[in-house]
């Protein structure tokens, strides 16, 4: 039996790796990957805490499945947007995409 | 009797104004002049017809009724019952003014064919004359003080436009602005007076019954608004009437608001004859006469001020006229002096002691004032038109360019002489009769006033004959005249210019003694006929004094060299210089407006506005701008920066929640 702390430590590491990647990587694709990492960290937390606190219930697992599906859809939309941006600007570096400022 | 057609008197000139003003560019001079002249001719015919019909029909009590053929509510005021009406009112003085205005205007229209021949802007000139005639007619037939005020401003605008007719010349521009600003300044008083009057008496109408009821009820404390009304009965009405008089003083060039009139002579001479001698400048006198029932009932003490302001103005203008060398300036000051005579005549009226407040005896001055207004309009228009003929011949306003003109311009000479005799008060010319009534009214008021006015009448005779001799006798400027003769255009003016002179002179010759009845039987304060009886004592005194003045002027000025005049000038150089410079009144105005008002009040206010008021608003704007600039970098457009700020915000909120 794996201790809940190990799982939470792994998910926290994943979460902050995602946050760090989101704030520092310049490629939008890498930023997208970081978002997936954060989502996966929360999914892990959902599953682990459901098992820990409501071992008879299944809500946490279902929510995890929802989250995976939504993140898959979100990735598809995001990548579609990125392709369009690339067609327009020939570049997908995040700090170059500042057209919406003042 | 049905006077519906009087509306045409106002409509015809406005139609010709619109035609000439809008389509004048495509009309030839002859056609444009004819349109203007014909419309005024029709107005004159209608005016004379109205006068014959009106003065032919006395009411049952022997008085002339006040008729109102038109009156409709134009604008309501929503204060009490006040409303601003437009209409036509016929009473003895307005019908008399119709005659004066249409006659002089028609003569000036005819005369201008010759005088303005070939001028640029001929059509514009006739358009403005039409507009002026309409406005002046509207002023005299007004049914209420507000309508009068509206047309009052319109004649002011026409005066401005016509003084500045030669708008490419600086003196004309300056003179037109001066006339407009001075009279506008005075009209401020008029407007405030009207509003105070209307507010406290509940009516603007010249049918004073409503005002009387209100103010009389007020005195006994039974008016609808007792506190308002008590004030009206006490000091408000005199104040309101005096404020209106300030407007009238501006228009009628009473001291110290007279300064615009001499400068107004920069306009074409026929305009001076029509506007600045015969019609517009007497509007102030007419206004006081219109409000006369209120004056005599509620402000008889205030009338004393009117009388003394008039007397001082008459004296001042006569003194200045003695030293001027520009013939139009002499005539301008003589106009100021004569209008002041009319004001004095109104000012010396006294309320009747028994029975009605207005009786023919106490209100002799009212009749005298209107009489003098009528006769003065005719002979002063003649004098100005004669001056126009002379200026047309010698191309100068200065007496030094004239002298000995009697040989070259016989018709002008005779008409000028008759008008001069009339203004000097020599019988049987019209001026004698009207001036005599004014003197009689002044003597009835107080012997001091009577002698002062007699002395001013003597001064009038003196300066008018000085002018007459200076133009037609005296030292001839032979050199200039020979030169003009060599060019071929020197001599009597064309018939189109001399005809109006002769026609107007007929009025001057016959007005005094050929009317069936006398002037007083048509125009008097009560409407009841007033039979004029010449007071022989006053009449003989004034004629003798006038003759002495004329003899004196003859002795001094008739010869070709004038040693006496030179010696007098040398003996009193200071006085002559002061009189010639109009006692430096224009300089005083210049000093007061520029050095005191502009420098001490306007400039600091302008500085305050530019630096403090503008500065405060500019400071607000630049402060907002600075804040905006400093927080602008937050909106960098860089996604990761936003995420970073968002994250830090969450961390801070997280720690706050924990604590």
Quick recap:
The complex is a heterodimer of chains A (102) and B (659). Chain A is mainly α and 102 residues long. Chain A has helices at residues 4-24, 28-53, 59-89.
Q: What report would you give on this structure?
A:
The complex is a heterodimer of chains A (102) and B (659). Chain A is mainly alpha-helical and 102 residues long. Chain A contains three helices and no strands. The chains are: A mainly alpha (102), B mainly alpha (659). Chains A and B meet through helix 1 of A and helix 25 of B.
Topology readout:
The complex is a heterodimer of chains A (102) and B (659).
Chain A: H1 4-24, H2 28-53, H3 59-89
Chain B: H1 6-23, H2 29-56, E1 67-76, E2 83-90, H3 92-115, H4 122-140, H5 145-163, H6 170-201, H7 209-219, H8 226-251, H9 260-263, H10 269-278, H11 283-290, H12 292-298, H13 300-321, H14 327-347, H15 364-394, H16 410-424, H17 430-445, H18 447-472, H19 478-487, H20 495-514, H21 536-557, H22 563-571, H23 573-580, H24 585-631, H25 639-658
Antiparallel strand pairs in B: 1-2
Helix pairs in contact in B: 1-2, 1-4, 2-3, 2-4, 3-4, 3-10, 3-15, 3-20, 4-5, 5-6, 6-8, 7-8, 8-11, 8-13, 10-15, 13-14, 13-18, 14-15, 14-17, 14-18, 15-16, 15-17, 15-20, 16-17, 16-18, 16-20, 17-18, 17-20, 17-21, 18-21
What is the 3D shape of chain A? elongated
Identify the quaternary structure here.
Answer: heterodimer
Report the helical percentage of chain B: over 70%
Main CATH class of chain A: Mainly Alpha
Number of strands of chain B: 2
- For the terminal residues of chain A, how far apart are their CA atoms? 55 Å
Task: Please give the count of helices of chain A.
Answer: 3
Terminal CA distance of chain B reads: 102 Å
The number of domains of chain A: 1
**Cα gyration radius of chain A (Å):** 17 Å
Class from secondary-structure proportions of chain B = mainly alpha
Mean pLDDT of chain B: 85
Main beta-sheet strand count, sense and barrel state of chain A = none
């Amino acid at each position: 039996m794996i201790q809940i702390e190990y799982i939470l430590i792994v998910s926290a590491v994943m979460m902050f790796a995602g946050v760090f990647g989101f704030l520092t990587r310049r490629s939008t694709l890498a930023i997208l990957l970081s978002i997936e990492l954060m989502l996966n960290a929360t999914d892990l937390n959902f599953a682990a805490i459901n098992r820990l606190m409501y071992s008879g219930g299944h809500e946490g697992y279902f929510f995890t499945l929802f989250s995976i599906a939504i993140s898959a859809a979100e990735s598809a939309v995001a990548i579609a947007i990125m392709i369009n941006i690339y067609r327009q600007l020939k570049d997908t570096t995040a700090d170059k995409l500042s057209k919406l400022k003042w | 009797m049905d006077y519906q057609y009087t509306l045409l008197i106002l409509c015809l000139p406005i139609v010709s104004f619109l035609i000439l003003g809008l389509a004048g560019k495509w009309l030839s001079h002859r056609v444009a002049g004819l349109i203007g002249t014909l419309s005024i001719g029709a107005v004159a015919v209608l005016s004379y017809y109205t006068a014959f019909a009106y003065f032919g029909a006395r009411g049952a009590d022997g008085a002339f009724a006040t008729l109102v053929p038109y009156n409709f509510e134009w604008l309501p005021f929503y204060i009490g019952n006040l409303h601003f009406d437009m209409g036509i009112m016929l009473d003895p003085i307005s019908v008399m003014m119709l005659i004066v205005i249409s006659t002089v205007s028609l003569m000036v229209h005819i005369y201008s064919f010759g005088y303005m021949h070939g001028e640029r802007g001929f059509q514009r000139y006739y358009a403005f004359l039409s507009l002026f005639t309409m406005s002046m007619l509207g002023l005299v037939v007004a049914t209420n003080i507000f309508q009068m005020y509206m047309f009052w401003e319109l004649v002011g605008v026409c005066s401005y436009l016509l003084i500045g007719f030669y708008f490419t010349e600086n003196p004309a521009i300056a003179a037109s602005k001066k006339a407009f600003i001075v009279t506008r300044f005075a009209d401020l008083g008029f407007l405030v007076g009207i509003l105070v009057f209307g507010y406290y008496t509940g009516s603007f109408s010249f049918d004073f019954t409503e005002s009387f009821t209100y103010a009389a009820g007020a005195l006994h404390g039974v008016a609808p608004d007792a506190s308002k009304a008590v004030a009206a009965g006490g000091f408000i009405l005199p104040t309101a009437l005096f404020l209106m008089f300030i407007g009238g003083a501006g228009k009628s060039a009473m001291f110290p608001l007279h300064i615009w009139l001499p400068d107004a002579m920069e306009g074409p001479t026929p305009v001076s004859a029509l506007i600045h001698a015969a019609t517009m400048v007497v509007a102030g006198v007419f206004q006081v006469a219109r409000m006369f029932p209120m004056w005599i009932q509620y402000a008889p003490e205030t009338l004393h001020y009117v009388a003394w302001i008039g007397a001082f103005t008459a004296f001042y203008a006569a003194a200045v006229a003695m030293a001027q060398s520009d013939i139009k300036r002499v005539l301008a000051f003589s106009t100021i002096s004569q209008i002041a005579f009319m004001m004095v005549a109104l000012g010396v009226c006294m309320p009747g002691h028994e029975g009605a407040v207005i009786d023919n005896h106490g209100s002799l001055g009212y009749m005298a004032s209107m009489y003098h207004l009528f006769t003065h309009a005719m002979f002063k228009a003649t004098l100005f038109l004669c001056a126009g003929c002379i200026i047309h011949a010698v191309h100068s306003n200065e007496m030094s360019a004239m002298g000995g003109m009697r040989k070259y311009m016989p018709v002008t000479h005779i008409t000028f002489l008759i008008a001069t005799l009339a203004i000097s008060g020599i019988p049987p010319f019209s001026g004698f009769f009207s001036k005599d009534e004014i003197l009689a009214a002044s003597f009835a008021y107080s012997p001091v006033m009577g002698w002062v006015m007699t002395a001013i009448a003597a001064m009038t005779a003196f300066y008018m004959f000085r002018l007459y001799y200076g133009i037609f006798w005296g030292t001839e400027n032979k050199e200039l005249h020979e030169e003009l003769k060599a060019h071929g255009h020197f001599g009597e003016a064309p018939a189109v210019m001399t005809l109006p002179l002769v026609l107007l002179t007929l009025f001057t010759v016959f007005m005094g003694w050929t009317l069936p009845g006398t002037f007083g039987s048509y125009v008097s304060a009560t409407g009841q006929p007033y039979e004029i009886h010449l007071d022989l004592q006053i009449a003989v005194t004034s004629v003798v004094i006038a003759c002495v003045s004329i003899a004196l002027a003859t002795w001094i000025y008739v010869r070709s060299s004038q040693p006496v005049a030179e010696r007098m000038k040398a003996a009193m150089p200071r006085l002559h210089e002061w009189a010639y410079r109009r006692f430096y009144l224009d300089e005083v105005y210049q000093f007061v407006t520029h050095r005191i008002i502009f420098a001490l009040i306007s400039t600091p206010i302008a500085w305050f506005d530019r630096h403090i008021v503008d500065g405060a608003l500019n400071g607000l704007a630049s402060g907002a701008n600075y804040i905006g600039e400093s927080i602008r970098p937050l909106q960098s457009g860089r996604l990761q920066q936003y995420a970073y700020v968002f994250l830090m915000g969450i961390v801070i909120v997280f720690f706050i929640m924990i604590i």
